[in-house]
Specification:
This protein is of the alpha/beta class. The protein contains two helices and eight strands, in the order βαββββαβββ. The protein has a single domain, classed as 2,3-Dihydroxybiphenyl 1,2-Dioxygenase, domain 1. The radius of gyration is 16 Å and the shape is globular.
């Protein structure tokens, strides 16, 4: 009998114009840890970890930011969402309209953009 393929995990890659600045934001404001970087002083690609997720950050040239393109939007399943909301509210990462809310589709969630316009939504089922 043939074995069926199994999806184990996903490591989304977010475009950034400055990997060091992105590492600073994700580590110092969102509580991630650096998993790896391709260069210690001037990385172009790095990975970050928090709890059970891993996100990769990849440098993109300035010319790629001149055109309006859709940026990634991550939906991250979260436990203890109220505590995470409180943690992030103290770290000044929210935008004017960020709020913790229950949705019509049965989730409790909040969302904001990182400095590179990548969307981050944290949620749990209600």
């Amino acid at each position: 009998m043939d074995k069926k393929g199994f999806l184990h995990q996903i490591h989304p890659v977010l475009p950034v114009w400055d990997v060091v600045e992105a590492l600073d934001f994700y580590v110092n404001r969102l509580g991630f840890k650096i998993a790896f970087a391709d260069d210690a002083k001037n990385p172009k690609y790095a990975g970050i970890l928090r709890d059970g997720i891993e996100i990769h950050l990849q440098w993109h040239d300035d010319t790629e930011w001149e055109t309006a393109v859709d940026r990634p939007m991550l939906r991250i399943v979260t436990e203890n969402i109220e505590a995470l909301y409180d943690e992030y509210s103290e770290n000044d990462v929210f935008h004017t309209y960020t709020l913790l809310r229950e949705t019509a589709w049965g989730t409790k969630e909040f969302a904001f953009y990182d400095p590179f316009k990548n969307g981050l939504t944290f949620y749990r089922d209600v």
